[in-house]
Amino acid sequence: EMIVVGSVNADLVIRVDRRPMPGETVIGSDLATYPGGKGANQAVAAARLGARVALLGRVGSDGNGEFLRKALSGDGVDLDRLTDTPGPSGVAVITVGADGDNSIIVSPGVNARLSEDDIAAAADLLASARVVSLQLESPLATVVAAARTAARVVFNLSPPAAVPDELLAVCDPLVVNEHEAALLLGGPGEPEQQARALLALGPRSAVLTLGADGAVVAEPGTVTAVPSPRVEAVDTTGAGDAFTGALAWRLARGDGLADATAFAVRVGAASVRAPGAQSSYPYPEDLEGL
Ligand code: ADP
Questions:
Q1: How far is the CA of 269 from the centre of ligand 1 (A)?
Q2: ipTM of the complex
């Protein structure tokens, strides 16, 4: 049904009352280690909802590699294209603040070795999938090569970076949050205006996610606001990945973009009610009442 090309990381999470200033030390919670990485998160979000999803990526030869592979296979993600690579697995060092907000440092490890050759080796598979979902925790040249091969590209431009027009042009949709949109567009703005401006960058469609406020969908000729269900946010880590994985799956199933987004905001909202990224991702029954 769908293929995710992307990163696999171990998320090392510490909760803090406030973050340290340079030169300062603060005491945080016990360390919690969760499976994460934008690519893996999207794949797990989709798999838990019932998708047939394969993950094309790399894990390292360290203990984290084994931990990450086990977590993914436990969630039913197809790992035929997940390669064991000598070197450290990707890691994200995450602090979660009192409001459930997060700050993240990513160490790519072997995610940086995902190559254009890996894409070429999987070209048939990528071309036959209904949707290929991409993010930017993998090398840009690899992401561009995957986009060239795919029938339909869902692209989460995160973490934000300059990308070639060729890549933007095939996104259907381009998915970004408010922070990423402001960087891409040169400043903040009113959400529907920002969504229109994203579409003007050249993708076939654009989705701007707005945290607790849901999302805005921009397609040629129409802009649609999609509110999010109200929930108590405990930890927003990976909400955008849950959203995008769910969105990509519904698009692969044939939904229109507005309908797929209306589903994805429920998945995103469900994912902020518990700690961690994948550990908080919903099964279909968890969406009842949202
Ligand atoms: P990111 O995680 O990339 O920063 P957002 O914060 O925009 O992205 O969240 C993505 C989606 O997750 C939102 O569109 C929404 O559906 C859901 N979401 C995130 N935070 C909340 C929240 N506090 N309450 C309800 N839903 C949320």
A1: 6
A2: 0.98
Q: Does residue 135 have its Cβ closer than 6 Å to ligand 1? A: no
pLDDT at position 215 over 90: yes
Q: Could you check whether the bond before residue 35 is cis, i.e. omega within 30 degrees of 0?
A: no
Whether residue 65 has its Cβ less than 6 Å from ligand 1: no
Evaluated on CA atoms 8, 242, 249, 171, the torsion sign reads: negative
Spell out the domains of the chain, with CATH numbers in brackets: 2-7+38-88+110-279 (3.40.1190.20)
> Which atom of ligand 1 is the closest one to the Cα of 264?
16
CA nearest neighbour of 237 among 43, 69, 104, 75:
104
**Where does the pLDDT of residue 96 fall: very low under 50, low under 70, confident under 90, or very high at 90 and above?**
confident
Q: Ligand 1 centroid vs 228 CA: distance in angstroms?
A: 8
Task: Identify the CA nearest to 170 among candidates 197, 192, 146.
Answer: 146
The percent of residues in the chain predicted with pLDDT above 70, rounded, is 100
